[in-house]
Design a protein that fits this description.
Rossmann fold, alpha/beta, 5-stranded mixed beta sheet, 440 residues, 2 domains
Length: 440
């Protein structure tokens, strides 16, 4: 790639000190399901009467890193077979995987969803049928293989969306309109900007529920520890209506956050599509992918550094533009085609987030650059925190100076004395997990 990282020829960074860090442990409410398979079976009882022996059932699975997605889908497949149905899997993920059938198969495989693992076919195609039109003329698309099936079940997590706030956000309705609608549906909904998501997406979902063989949505809600807290089977008439709205309210109650209202620097070890649809969840970092928007409940952060891209992202670093600094290592992992097609499909809400921030040659210099430019004249006073990613917020490394700014309502424990900001021999930060284990 022709993009070259910054070279510190003027010595701007070499003298910037890195703060000593203390390990913090946050505690969040932790309702959780210990037997996810049993919960799936129990939830699915309400749908049992709708399953006919011999029926071909399409199971839509998305691209997000949904907790326990493999046991959820494996149990669903086994349950359908026990009822005499013939299930198969379809990728329900809009433009992800580079908007190609092969790319979407690869995304499913990275989640552990393969024909070999599940023992059922996976039908990956971008072919769609036009199911009809909304009153405003918007065409409603549906995956052709799913449309031809005797029934459709969608599996997804209900959670706050990264780019807007509404009664229906990320969950079953989004998967119906954008995932089940494939790339054509994703393009159509996003072409209307935020209005397409807040207003038209629920209407598309209701239209599909009324005109397609949709049996239910199997929804999960997760707690602040990335664990399944609830499982619910939502019947078609409940999608984009009160049953789904209630799950979103519950998800918002359980959503974790950083224990500060403001920070000078946030260091994020990794970003990725399996972490958040926006790479780094704006519900945590505050910055929404549309220009100059801020999540009202999240911390305000002056500078953000992000250091690596998860392998499960397959090079799609959408959301990278919400960081101020990154590393040459992350940039080398970019698949610009996958990034650009996801950004162009998402349209106005995502174009800002596909921009590439300042690239530094290594992790240390990226952090030094963020400290030097954060507006803190005395760098030894920097309010800095380091997290593994925006999904995992139980353990946080924080500068001593940040401790006096913790929110009073946050349930935070300081686990040990301050320690130097440590790096591995290859220059990467000491793995977060090993530092956390050493303190616990």
């Amino acid at each position: 790639m022709l993009l070259q990282p910054f070279r510190d020829t003027n010595g701007l960074l070499a003298a910037v000190p890195l703060p000593d860090l203390v390990m913090l442990r946050q505690r969040f409410p932790r309702p959780r399901i210990t037997d996810v398979s049993a919960a799936v079976i129990a939830a699915f009882e309400s749908v049992r009467a709708r399953i006919r022996p011999g029926a071909r059932i399409a199971i839509g699975v998305g691209s997000r890193g949904v907790a326990d997605i493999v046991p959820v889908v494996v149990t669903l497949v086994a349950t359908l077979r026990r009822y005499g149905a013939e299930p198969f899997i379809i990728p329900a993920m809009g433009s992800h995987g580079g908007a190609t059938p092969e790319g979407q198969l690869a995304v499913l495989a990275s989640l552990g969803i393969t024909e070999q693992a599940l023992g059922v076919p996976i039908v990956s195609s971008l072919d769609v049928d036009v199911l009809g039109k909304l009153p405003n003329g918007m065409p409603v698309y549906i995956d052709r293989a799913a449309h031809a099936a005797d029934g459709i079940i969608l599996v997804n997590r209900v959670k706050p969306h990264t780019d807007f706030d509404a009664e229906i956000e990320s969950g079953l309705s989004k998967m119906v309109a954008i995932g089940l609608g494939k790339h054509a549906g994703a393009l159509e909904v996003h072409a209307w900007g935020v209005e397409g998501l807040t207003t038209h997406m629920p209407e598309v979902a209701k239209f599909v529920a009324a005109h397609a063989p949709l049996l239910c949505g199997l929804a999960t809600v997760e707690n602040g520890y990335d664990e399944v807290a609830e499982v619910a089977a939502i019947l078609p008439e409940g999608i984009a209506n009160e049953p789904e709205r209630a799950l979103l309210r519950r998800a918002k109650e359980l959503m974790p956050r950083l224990p500060w209202d403001a920070l000078d620097v946030l260091v994020i070890d990794e970003m990725g599509k399996n972490v958040s649809g926006a790479g780094m969840d704006p519900n945590i970092i505050g910055r929404m992918r549309a220009v100059d928007q801020q999540k009202p409940t999240a911390a305000r952060i002056t500078n953000i550094t992000v250091h690596n891209l998860t392998d499960e992202s397959h090079g799609n670093a959408i959301g990278l533009g919400n960081a101020d600094f990154t590393t040459a290592r992350l940039v080398e992992k970019l698949d610009l085609q996958a990034l650009y097609i996801n950004s162009l499909t998402a349209g106005v809400i995502a174009l800002n987030s596909c921009k590439i921030p300042l690239v530094l040659p290594d992790d240390r210099s990226a952090i030094q650059a963020a400290i030097r430019s954060c507006g803190r004249a005395d760098p030894t006073r920097v309010r800095l925190a380091r997290i593994e990613n925006t999904l995992r917020l139980e353990y946080i490394l924080a500068s001593v100076q940040s401790l006096e700014h913790l929110r009073s309502a946050a349930d935070v424990e300081v686990l040990g004395p301050a320690m130097p900001f440590s790096f591995e021999p290859d220059g990467s930060p000491t793995p977060f997990a090993s530092l956390a284990r050493a303190q616990v």
